[in-house]
């Protein structure tokens, strides 16, 4: 400042004098440029200290865009209070509760459109108005994304990855990789920066680095978006596990199919050329396990097919199984043992077959012998029965007592032989009380038609010896005793025609009747008493086995009875 008349120097001096005399801004300084970030809070300082005698009446904040458009933000009057303008309502406020003393402004959520020049206007009385300006630059920290692409071997030149970023000022993008390719950058109207990396995919590129770098002035160093290339390709199958030294009876043998591909093979199929897989092998994923000792039949060409989403590939191995000396000896021993066991089993079967045939023949001979003996016994029994029947038929007597004994013997003997023979002859001679003559009756109780036949038979009976009569009487008495049968004495008394007296008793006129069953000429008196007791039993037997109907004595029906005619013959 060489001359006081210089207008510029004079103006500065005047302002300094006025500020010294009327008051001053404590903050901000005369020129202040601030940097803010979108989405964050921005603080605009403003504090004025008036001189003695001055008083701040109103504080006003306003903004001026780069295009020259001015707009008020907020006002605080000493008496009229606070006023927010529509475009900034709810987004700004004073930092202090007393804006008259502390007028700092806060922008709560800074936008990119908030980049402008802001003015703090102080109105005092009586000194006048004072202003201070702040330039705000709004930055946006870049937002970036990386979109990788899954490649497949054999495809043409194509995009491997795309990197995008948006910021204020606009960021710059670059790639960090050792994979050869081309970069293409572009920007859109909405200030989004895009960069793409093109290459020709090969399986050797799978897993290689392809990073995107985002450069921005708000960042101390570039932001790195890490990425690894993904290239899909069919698998490569390799079979392992066969060491060219497999032999018979080897334990724990297995084959493994190792497939190298992207993605890793997830499906493995085992086959054997010229036939099916051996028995007793298990498949576990990519492994083929022999769960038994190896044998010669396990030889062959084994093939494994590995498959993923891209394709499939096959691998094969030729398995050769050698026969060592120990295996050969063991096989010979096993064959010999098998032959021995088979021969022993065959011999046992032959012996058992012979034994079974011998036993069968023996039982057949014995059965035929028993049948023959049984037939002979039957013939013998039939002959004996026939002889007995003939003897009984030929031993008929006209003696009523003997006749009754024979009839009782025949009747009582039938249950024992399971067939009842009817009485051969029931000619009973009873003496009636009115003096009738003796009358002969046939086996059905009717008068005899052939008296000469009965007379002949009666004469035959009288010719029997006394010994045979006694023997017959004893047999009758024994049979009746064993059969628990009694003879009703009054059997003939209640019948019509007049009853026959079968034992000794008193006649109607008081005389003694002649006993037909009792004592005969030449019979001892002791035997006559036996007749009396036996006659009662015989009478009861007759009553149980015979009935009197229409003047005839008839045998009672029996399910097993066999009626014999007097002239019939037993065969």
TrEMBL record:
GO biological process, one term: heterophilic cell-cell adhesion via plasma membrane cell adhesion molecules
Domain Ig-like: 29-137, 142-226, 235-320
Cellular compartments annotated: Membrane
PROSITE patterns registered for this protein in UniProt: IG_LIKE
Pfam families per the UniProt record, alphabetical: C2-set_2, Ig_3, V-set
Chain positions covered by the region annotation Disordered: 500-535, 549-571
Segment forming the signal sequence: 1-23
Keywords attached to this entry: Cell adhesion, Disulfide bond, Glycoprotein, Membrane, Repeat, Signal, Transmembrane, Transmembrane helix
One GO cellular component term noted in the UniProt record for this chain: membrane
Annotated transmembrane regions: 336-361
Membrane topology field: Single-pass membrane protein
The family this protein is said to belong to: Belongs to the nectin family.
Protein name: Ig-like domain-containing protein
Species, as recorded: Silurus meridionalis
């Amino acid at each position: 400042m060489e001359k006081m008349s210089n207008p510029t120097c004079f103006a500065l001096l005047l302002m300094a004098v006025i500020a010294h005399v009327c008051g001053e801004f404590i903050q901000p300084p005369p020129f202040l440029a601030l940097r803010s970030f979108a989405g964050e809070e921005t603080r605009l300082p403003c504090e004025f200290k008036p001189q003695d005698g001055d008083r701040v009446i109103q504080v006003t904040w306003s903004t001026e865009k780069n295009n020259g458009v001015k707009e008020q933000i907020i006002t605080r009057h000493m008496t009229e209070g606070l006023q927010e303008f529509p475009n900034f309502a709810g987004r700004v406020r004073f930092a202090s509760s007393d804006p008259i003393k502390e007028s700092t402004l806060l922008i709560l959520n800074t936008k990119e459109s908030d980049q402008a020049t802001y003015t703090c206007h102080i109105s005092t009385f009586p000194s006048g108005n004072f202003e201070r300006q702040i330039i705000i630059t709004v930055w946006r920290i870049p937002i970036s994304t990386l979109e990788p692409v899954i490649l497949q071997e054999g495809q043409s030149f194509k995009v491997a990855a795309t990197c995008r970023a948006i910021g204020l000022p606009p960021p710059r993008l670059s790639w960090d990789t050792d994979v050869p390719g081309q970069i293409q950058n572009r920007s859109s109207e909405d200030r989004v920066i895009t960069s793409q990396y093109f290459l020709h995919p090969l399986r050797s590129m799978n897993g290689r680095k392809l990073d995107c770098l985002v450069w921005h002035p708000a960042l101390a160093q570039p932001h790195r978006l890490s990425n690894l290339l993904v290239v899909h390709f069919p698998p490569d199958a390799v079979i392992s596990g066969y060491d060219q030294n497999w032999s018979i009876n080897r334990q724990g043998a297995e084959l493994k199919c190792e497939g190298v591909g992207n993605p890793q093979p997830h499906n493995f199929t085992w086959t054997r050329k010229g036939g099916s897989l051996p028995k007793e092998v298990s498949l576990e994923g990519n492994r083929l396990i022999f769960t038994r000792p190896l044998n010669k039949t396990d030889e062959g060409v084994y093939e494994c097919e590995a498959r993923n989403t891209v394709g499939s590939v096959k691998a094969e191995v030729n398995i050769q199984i050698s026969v060592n000396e120990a295996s050969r000896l063991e096989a010979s021993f096993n064959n010999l043992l098998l032959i021995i066991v088979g021969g022993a089993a065959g011999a046992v079967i032959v012996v058992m077959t012979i034994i079974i045939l011998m036993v069968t023949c023996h039982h057949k001979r014995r059965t035929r012998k028993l049948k023959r003996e049984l037939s002979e016994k039957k013939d013998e029994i039939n002959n004996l029965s026939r002889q007995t029947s003939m003897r009984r038929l030929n031993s008929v007597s006209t003696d009523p007592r003997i006749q009754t004994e024979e009839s009782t013997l025949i009747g009582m003997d039938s249950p024992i032989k399971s067939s009842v023979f009817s009485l051969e002859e029931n000619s009973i001679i009873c003496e009636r009380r009115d003096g009738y003559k003796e009358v002969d009756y046939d086996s059905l109780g009717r008068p005899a038609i052939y008296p000469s036949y009965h007379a002949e038979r009666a004469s035959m009976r009288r010719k029997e010896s006394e010994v045979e009569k006694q023997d017959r009487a004893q047999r009758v008495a024994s049979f009746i005793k064993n059969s628990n049968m009694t003879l009703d004495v009054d059997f003939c008394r209640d019948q019509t025609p007049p009853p026959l007296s079968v034992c000794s008793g008193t006649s109607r006129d008081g005389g003694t009747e002649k006993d037909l069953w009792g004592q005969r000429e030449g019979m001892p008196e002791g035997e006559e008493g036996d007749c009396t007791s036996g006659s009662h039993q015989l009478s009861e037997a007759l009553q149980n086995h015979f009935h009197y109907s229409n003047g005839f004595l008839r045998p009672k029906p029996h399910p097993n009875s066999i009626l014999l005619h007097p002239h019939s013959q037993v065969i």
